[in-house]
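Whiteboard transcription, Tuesday session. T.W. wrote the structure tokens on the left side:
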């Protein structure tokens, strides 16, 4: 850690160490010891748990800070959850978006990706709305004091929402929705017509096969009958010839 700290100072002279991270995905017993060691480099180090599992839809980071608690007449340190968000500079966002354009998974369609992203965004939005609701409920019940800055931010967010009571907006939304439904309806009709067409072709194909098989059977039966008649004629001729010779 001392060697890494010296290299950090040489490369990132304008930055400072604020803590350490772990891939968790949960807190470990040794994390509090690592926290004690990091206090040499930061007075209040922050532990960030980064969940690298691929099935996580929400933001895969959780932050903790250690506080002193009393247990069995002794003072010990324990982790406490810290609210944290993930952000990036504009240059970083542009670079990440540029890299994401080149990522293509052939096993997953673009429509499936879009649906997955929408579900992830809606899930995160639901979580944030529940946090706002919990905060306002606690304020009304007197559990926590009022923070005017938070209320101002909430009001700003709600002011940015579109006014859905405007007649022109409602009409535009209805037209757009009807257009989408029309495309879905026409696509369903086309699929139905194609399925019926394939069914008719299948019926015609197997019917022609049955007719050809029946014709071959009839021709074979007629040929067998002719062969039997020819054999009878030959037998009758041989019998008449033998009778004439006897006479």
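and on the right, the sequence the group agreed on:
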């Amino acid at each position: 850690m001392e060697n890494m700290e010296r290299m950090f100072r040489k490369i990132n002279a304008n930055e400072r160490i604020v803590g350490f991270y772990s891939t968790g995905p949960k807190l470990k017993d040794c994390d509090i010891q690592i926290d004690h060691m990091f206090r040499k480099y930061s007075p209040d180090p922050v532990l960030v748990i980064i969940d690298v599992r691929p099935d996580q839809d929400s933001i895969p980071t959780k932050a903790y800070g250690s506080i002193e608690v009393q247990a069995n007449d002794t003072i010990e340190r324990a982790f406490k959850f810290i609210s944290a968000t993930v952000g990036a500079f504009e240059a970083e966002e542009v670079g990440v978006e540029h890299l994401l354009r080149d990522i293509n998974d052939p096993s997953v369609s673009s429509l499936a990706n879009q649906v997955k992203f929408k579900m992830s965004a809606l899930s995160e939005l639901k979580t944030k709305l529940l946090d706002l609701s919990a905060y306002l409920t606690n304020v009304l019940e007197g559990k926590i004091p009022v923070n005017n800055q938070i209320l101002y931010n909430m009001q700003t967010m709600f002011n940015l929402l579109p006014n859905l009571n405007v007649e022109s907006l409602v009409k535009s939304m209805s037209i757009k929705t009807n257009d989408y439904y029309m495309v879905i309806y026409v696509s369903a009709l086309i699929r139905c017509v194609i399925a019926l067409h394939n069914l008719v072709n299948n019926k015609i194909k197997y019917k022609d096969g049955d007719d050809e098989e029946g014709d071959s059977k009839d021709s074979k039966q007629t040929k067998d009958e002719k062969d039997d008649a020819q054999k009878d004629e030959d037998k009758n001729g041989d019998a008449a010839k033998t009778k004439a010779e006897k006479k």
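Someone added at the bottom: The chain has a mean pLDDT of 80.
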